[in-house]
Design goal:
By secondary structure, this protein is an all-alpha fold. Helices cover about 75% and strands about 0% of the residues. The longest helix has 30 residues.
Length: about 170
């Protein structure tokens, strides 16, 4: 198995596990407002996986070299593969595991909106938007796009740190 695919599987399995932990802790249901801090854990996990994937590619190369382009390319492959797997799971999760996520989100949001003195018409309009953008297919699509963008940013940074160019041939 090639290195980017291996690390994409590690990324996807870890992210799926963290999603399930979040669900079982109630951070996607009754305690949705208390779980916002939990969203940083998958980001930190992702950064670690990108780091180790680029390091593994560098160690595989003869002379342990990793050009900036190789690093960014590897990071993007990890993002692509893990994004596809993660998007598939996102669809499954919000269709069958937690199909009431939108209702919990709206219930928690309505409390905040009421505290901000929103009118009922404003709340109903916002609720329509929330219901639209939290459909499982849209969440999966946006999740895939976000994985690519965030993966690119992380890969650009980590590739700059881990790059080790081969010596110039004279």
């Amino acid at each position: 198995m090639n290195t980017p695919l291996l690390y994409a599987l590690i990324m996807a399995i870890g992210q799926i596990a963290l999603t399930l932990v979040s669900f079982f802790l109630g951070y996607q249901t009754e305690q949705i407002n208390q779980g916002t801090w939990f969203g940083f854990i998958p980001l930190l996990y992702g950064i670690a996986v990108y780091w180790f994937s680029l390091k593994a590619v560098r160690e595989e190369n003869t002379g342990q070299y990793l050009t900036y382009g190789q690093g960014v390319g590897t990071g993007m492959l990890v993002a692509l593969y893990s994004g596809l797997l993660g998007s598939l799971y996102t669809y499954i999760h919000f269709t069958w595991v937690n199909p009431n996520f939108t209702d919990y989100l709206i219930e928690a949001s309505r409390v905040k909106w009421a505290a901000a003195n929103w009118s009922e018409a404003q709340m109903e309009g916002a609720e329509k938007g929330v219901r639209l953008f939290t459909q499982p297919a849209l969440q999966a699509g946006f999740g895939f796009m976000a994985t690519l963008v965030i993966g690119l940013i992380i890969a650009l940074i980590i590739a700059a740190i881990l790059k080790r160019n081969p010596p110039e041939e004279s």
